Structures are given as structure tokens and as C-alpha cells.
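EI: anyone free to look at a 447-residue chain?
SC: sure, send it
EI:
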Amino acid sequence: MKPNVLGGLGNGNGSVGADSKVLLRNSIEFNDVKDLDTLIEDIGDAQYVLLGEATHGTHEYYSIRAQITMKLIEKKGFSFIAVEGDWPDSYTLNRYVKNLPFSGKHAFNILNQFNRWPTWMWANWEVVALAEWLKTHNAGFPQNRKVGFYGLDVYSLWESMEAIIHYLKKVDTQALEVAMKAFRCFEPYYENEGRAYAHAASSGPISCEREVIDLLMEIRNKSTHYNTDHDAVFSAQQNAQVIVNAEKYYRTMIKGGVEAWNIRDKHMMDTLNRLVQFYGRDSKVIIWGHNSHIGDARATEMASEGQVNLGQLIREQHGDQRVYAVGFGSNTGHVVAGRNWGDVMRVMHIPPALKGSWEYIQHGLGAKDRITFMTDEMKQKFEHAAFGHRAIGVVYHPQYEQYGNYIPSMITRRYDAFIYIDTTTALHPLHIEPDGQQVPGTYPFGF
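SC: here you go
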């Protein structure tokens, strides 16, 4: 799949050719939050709305996704938010926004405890603002109609183990013994969390697979008898599933590549399906994740390499008509990222988009923020056209961007709409120092 350049576009001076007129006809300038109403209308009756980001450290991506999220909740009755984050950490925020007992007094205090690098992904002021809005919104609804907030990712082996042990100490001492057996299996590899286990498993016949499967089955078989709130029971079941899939993920992580990526995104898909089942088959979900996860992988070179992603899996399992994916991108600006894994967070400059890339072409349409809709006309015109599309991870080297940050993409097949912000600003993190002992979120891929 080789990137193409649209004729008459990309010269950076705002001139338009025949193809750019198609883009202009199928887009609107994005000047005010009210312009998002056109997007909300286009989303229609979709059950799964996927909101992307080209980086994990851009203010505008978070703030615009929050505005879209609030509109979807208020106008279309969406049921919960699922994010590219850890289950145990996100569940503490879920309890807070649902006004559940002993759930904390302020979202800042909860998010400030998120310590997995890159901490800024969720421990930021933009998410604090959304969480406080959710808490206020939920206060007017009965428990079964409160909007939840959940993490889809697979990294939290130790946190999920600790959460299960804490829970079982209160409700099931017999099942606690099964949990402790699994804990003792992993205990020699506590240092550097999953990486120590990954190295041990790759160099010898080390496996805790049997122990974690036994734990999952024990909780599944007995959880219906637990006399506690439904959210807590569901969380215990999910933590057990996270441990099973995290063990599998860490065994393959040391090799990197397709298998580890697919385990991660399939886990996200399975978690999403369990959440929909928990809320009810007609529940509606808003998903936050990097473009690399929410855009359809079949529209990129990922497909030829055997990779799948969450956006593809949702469409395959639930049908195109029930899914609406929104990609994000920009020409230039600033971003929060690190120079290497576990690095302190830094505000970095994003250089102008490469000539011929999707972002460069958007910039050439007058250097204005805009929302482009992948209409029938767009699909007919550009269905087989692939453009370089920028993807910045948590590790970023702007000076080398042209060598690895652009993914050839058939944009009209990857997304249903695209939000372009010409110049972006950095996210606003809550704290600076990362926890260097934990496996970084997004490791080893960066997205």
C-alpha cells in the first residue's frame, strides 16, 4: 500500500484542485463546539462510537472527545465510556463518577494515584474535568442508568491480582486460597512487573497459565453467590480475566510483533463485549483510544502483516451500520511524550506534516480546523487512495518523524469522519514522575 498524493493539493498555500473540491464539499469548518452537532447528527443511531487520537499527549484531542462524549450522553443516551487504560485504575474512577459508596471526594485525588507510565494518558486535567461532569450528570439518575467509565487494556496483572485478593478477603476466603496460589506463582517475578515474567517465560519452562485459569474459573463459578453490589462482582470477574490474558500477553510480549498486539486488542474487544452484556444488549458505548486501535486495521498495512485491531473487530462482530469511528490529526503544535520508555514527560514540538500526507493535505485546505465526513462521494473518489497518516506514540523523536511516524492509510475506509486541528497544544498532566517499576502502558508498541 503506497501513499498517494491528491492532484492539486498539498502545496500549503490554500489553492484547490478538482480533488480538493470534493474534500471541501464533504467537510465543515470546525470553529466552535456547536459545529460538533453536525457530527452528532451524522453519528445517527450508531451503538459503538470510537473516538481516536493521533497522540496520547494532545490537549485538543482530549477536550474535543470530551465534548463529543457529553453530547452523546445527553442527546443520545450513551451508557458508558471505555478507554485504552487499565481496568483497576479506571474502575476506581468509575465508582467515583457513579457516586458509589467510599469512592472518593474529587476526581483529581483518584487520577493522581494513576502511576503506570505514561501517567499523563489519564492523569490529566482534561480527564478530571470530564469525570466531574460525569459525576454531576449521574447524580440525577438511578443507579442502573448512571454512565460508567472503564478501562479496556491488558497490562494490569499485579494491580488486578491485588484487587482480587482485597475483594476475596471480604467475600470468599475459600476462593482467596486459589488467588493466593496464583499470586505465589508470579511472586518471584514481581520486579519490573510483567517484563521479569516475560523474560523468564521466554528462556525456560516457566508458566503460571494453569494457576490463573483456575482462578478465573473459581470466580466465574462462585461470583453469582456473592452478596455485594453488581459493579463490584463484575469488576472481580473482569480482573480475573485480565490476569489470564495478561499472563498470555506477557509470555509473548518479549518477542513483540503481531501476536502480542493481537492478544491485546482481542482482549479489549472481549472486555467491551462483556461490558455491553453487563449493561444490556442495547447499551451504547463511547470508546477512547489511539487512532491505531480505533481506525479499521484493514485500511492500513496492518492487515497484510496479520494484525487486527479494536476498530476492525467491532465492525466484524457487530456490523458497519452500528459503528462510527472518528479519527484525529493535526499539522503541527506541541505534545507530551517521552524520549524513551519510562522517561520523564516532556513537551515536544511537532514539526509540520510531511508533504503528501493526509495532514498536509488538510492543512492545504486553508489551514483551518475542520471535520471531514466519509460520505459516498468521498468513498467513491478516494476508496483506493492511501495517504501517509501521522501516528505519534508515547515515545517520540520529532527529528526522526519521517522515518516511522506515518502509516499508509485508506482514510475513507479507516474512519467515518476525521477531525483535523491545524495547530495543537500539549496535554495538561497532573504529575511528573512516572513509576519506573511498572510495565509501561502501550509497551512495546507506543500506541
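EI: Residues 5-16 have pLDDT under 50 and may be disordered.
SC: 👍
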